[in-house]
Amino acid sequence: MPPAHWQHFEHEADIGIRGYGNSQAEAFVQAAHAMMAVITEPALIQPRHLISIECDEQDPELLLVDWLNSLIFQMSTRKMLFSRFELELDGSRLQARVWGEAVDTGRHQPSVEIKGATYTELSVKQQDGEWIAQCVVDV
Amino acid sequence: MDISKLNKIDDYQWRIEPRGDMQVPAIIFASEDLIRAMDDKVYQQVTNVAKLPGIVNASFAMPDAHWGYGFPIGGVAAFDPDQDGVISAGGVGFDISCGVRTLHTGLRVDDILPYQKQLANVLYRHIPAGLGSTGKIHLNKKQMDQMLAGGARWAVAQGYGEQLDLERIEEQGCMQGADPAAVSDHAKDRQKNEMGTLGSGNHYLELQKVVEIYDPDIAQAFGIRLDDVKVSIHCGSRGLGHQIGTEFLKQMTKSASGFGIQLPDRELACAPLNSGLGRRYLGAMRAAINCALANREIITHLTREAFREVFADSELDLLYDVSHNTCKLEQHEVEGHLKSLYVHRKGATRAFGPGHPELPAALRQAGQPVLIGGTMGTASYILAGTAESMQQAYGSACHGAGRSMSRRKAAKSWQGRQVVDELAKRNILIRSPSLRGVAEEAPGAYKDVSAVVEAAGHAGLAGLVARLEPMVCIKG
C-alpha cells in the first residue's frame, strides 16, 4: 500500500487538489495538505496553534467540500494557514483538530487566497484499495 | 473544442442545435481560432446550461469562454420566472460582482513619468493587497447590514468616495432588493475586516496609459485621449461573496430534486426564482453585489488619497464601474415580446447599447463603457456597448483574457523576481507582497486578450474604443 500523499491536477482557470490515503479520513487529510500547497510551501507553515473543526454531512463528496470550506473559513477569518491535521470520521460526522499559524506574508509568500471548494471534478472514491478525495478549488 | 460539432452562422457566431434535454440552442461568439483553442469542457458546460428550467432564447458563450464551474466562465443565460425559470448560485460564481472600474487621473504620461516609482510605492502603501491583508475599516453588525443594503452609496455617505461617482456605477451604486438578513453570520464574519482590500489572484490595481484610440467619437464621449493616464481596479465582493456562493451552492444542490430539477452537473445548483430559496439567494447575492460596489468605492477613495500625496491637486473622476459575475433582472425581447428576465453573467460584462435608460446622461449616446482587463504585461481594452449587442446576448460582452496555463505550470515556468525585473525593463512597475503570486500571474500564462476583444468587436457584442498598457501594477 503506497503511503498517504497528495497532488495537484490541472483546471483551466484554477487548480485541482487530490488526496490519497488508506482510509477516507487519511485522504481527506491529504486533500487539506494539497489545498494549503496551493497557497504556499507547506513546510513553511509552523503548527503552533490548535483549532477544532466539526462537520456533519451524509454525502461523502459534500462532506469533503464542507471540510475544505471549513478550513477556508478559518483561514479567512483568523488569517491563518494550517499544516497539521488529525481527522476522525464517524458516518456523517467529521471531527478534526488542525494546527497552524498566522499568515506571515514575508515568510510564506502566499500566492493566492482560496475563495471556495467547488463541485467541479469532485469525487471521493476507493480505487485499488486506496481512497482518493478530490475537487477543484476556486482561487 | 471540436469545431465540427458546431454550425457556423457567420465568422464569429457558432450554434449548437438543441438535443437531448437541451431546451434551447447554445451559441458561441468567437473566431474559429478561439473556438479551436477552447477546452471541450466549454462545449459540455454551455450545453448543460441550455438544459436548465425556464431558460429562454439560448445559452451563450462569450469569446473568452473557458472551463468554469457549472457555467463556463464567459457564460450568459437568462431565465423567465413565469416559465419556472431558475436562479443559479453556480451561474453567478463565488466572486459575486467581481468587476472592473476605471478612473480618469487628469494626468498625461509625461506628467507621471518623473513620479512613476514614487506613485507605485505610495499606491502600494495605501491599498491593502494579498492574502491576510485587512483594511482600516472594521464594521460592526449594524454597519455591516447598512453596507450590504447601500453599496457604494453607503460608502460615499461614510466619506469614502464622491457623490458624482454613483451615476457611473451599474445600478447607480446601490443594488435594490438586497436582503442583508439572508446573508449568514459566517459570510459577515469573513467580511468585517476586509472592506477596502484588493484580494489576491488575478485582482489588481493598475496605472495605465492610453496607447491607441479606435473610435475617436466614443473615446471623446468617454473622456479618453491618447497618452492619458487612467487607473483600473479589478476586485470583487471578497470573503462575503465567496461564503454566500459556498453556502447557497450546497443548499441549492441538496434541494434541487425536491423542486423537481434534474441537475446535469451539481455545480449548476439552482432553485426556482419563485421559491423561498431562490428569493433568499437573490437577496443575499444582491447584498454581495453591494459589498463589491462598496469595496471598489473604498479602494477608489484610497487611490485618491495616494494620488494626492504625489499630485496635491489631482482629481480622479470615475469613467465607469462594471461587474462581471452577476444575476440581474432586466427587460429583454423573447420572441418579439418584452419580458422581465433574470440574466446570469458569469465572467461576462454587461454591455448596454446607446440610448439605454440605465446609462448616465453623459454616456447615453455613446453606449456603456465595457472595461476589459489584461495581464500585468499586456494590454487592457475599453469597449462600448452597441445597439447590436442588445440583440445578440442581452447586451453582454467578454470580460478578460482567461488563462492559457495553469497556476502550477506558471509557477514552474517563471520566477517571480524574473517577471518583476523583465517588466521593469519595459517600464512596468510591479508591487506585490508575494513573488510566488507574481509568477503564477505571469503575462505568459494568459491568452491573448487582443484576439478576444477583436472577436467581440466582429461579433457585434461591443465596439473597440481604446487600448491601454500598464505603467504600475499593484498585485494582491
Structure description:
The complex is a heterodimer of chains A (about 140) and B (about 475). With about 140 residues, chain A is an alpha+beta fold. Chain A has a domain at about 35-125: Archease, Possible Chaperone, Chain: A, domain 1 (3-Layer(bab) Sandwich). Chain A is about 30% helix and about 40% strand. Chain A contains 3 helices and 8 strands, in the order ββαβαββαβββ. Chain A has helices at about 25-40, 60-80, 105-110; strands spanning about 5-10, 15-20, 50-55, 80-90, 95-100, 115, 125, 130-139. In chain A, strands 1, 2, 6, 7 and 8 form a 5-stranded antiparallel sheet that branches. A 3-stranded antiparallel sheet of chain A has the order 3-5-4, with helices on one face. In chain A, a hairpin with a 4-residue loop joins strand 1 (about 5-10) and strand 2. In chain A, helix 1 (about 25-40) packs parallel to helix 2 (about 60-80). The N and C termini of chain A lie far apart (about 35 Å). The mean pLDDT of chain A is about 95. Chain B is α+β, with helices and mostly antiparallel strands and about 475 residues long. Chain B has one domain (about 5-405, about 445-475): tRNA-splicing ligase RtcB (Alpha-Beta Complex), CATH 3.90.1860. Chain B has helices at about 30-35, 40-50, 90, 110, 115-125, 140-155, 185-190, 215-220, 240-255, 275-310, 360-365, 385-395, 405-415, 415-425, 435-440, 450-460, and strands at about 5-10, 15, 25-30, 60-70, 70-80, 85-90, 100-110, 205-215, 230-235, 270, 320-325, 325-335, 335-345, 350, 370, 380-385, 395, 430, 460-475. In chain B, the strands form 4 sheets. In chain B, strands 7, 8, 9, 11, 15, 16, 18 and 19 form an 8-stranded mixed sheet that branches. In chain B, helix 5 (about 115-125) packs across helix 10 (about 275-310), helix 6 crosses helix 10 and helix 9 (about 240-255) packs antiparallel against helix 10. The longest helix of chain B has about 35 residues, at about 275-310. The chains are: A alpha+beta (about 140), B alpha+beta (about 475).
